[in-house]
Amino acid sequence: MKKFIIIILVLGIGLGIAGFWYWNKNSYSKEVLKLEILGPEKVSIGDEVEYTVRYKNNGDIKLEDLRLIFEFPKYTISTSLPKESDQGLGFSERIEIGPEKLGDVYPGEEKIFRFKGRILGKRGDVKTAKTWLSYHPKNLKARYESSTTLATTIASA
Q: Taking the complete model, does pTM exceed 0.90, yes or no?
């Protein structure tokens, strides 16, 4: 009877260790996705500004079902939109690009999207561009979202 209990305990501990190792192997941290907006810190009123949204998968798991949202600063007239967008020219506060255009992001892969617009406002105004990228890692059901902003100051007229 004692041998039976010892065998059960050893098997239980072994299964516990194997389960913990498997769970740790499948854990994911959203910090492995680097998301940034590149653009000017200062502009003149009416200047055309190009915002570059860049993201890179620094992890070792493929990211799937990506959705990118870029939001121009308030009172920005978009002058060109990426081919990935179906929206036309004019006032466009928000551009959404879906998974069918973004595809998957493999480990080490980097993707770049550019958005252009003319910023309107008063001297000294601080305008903020925002972007969000939502996704889920392969073999996980949880959905993650990363976001970032870039502030641009209107320097002169």
A: no
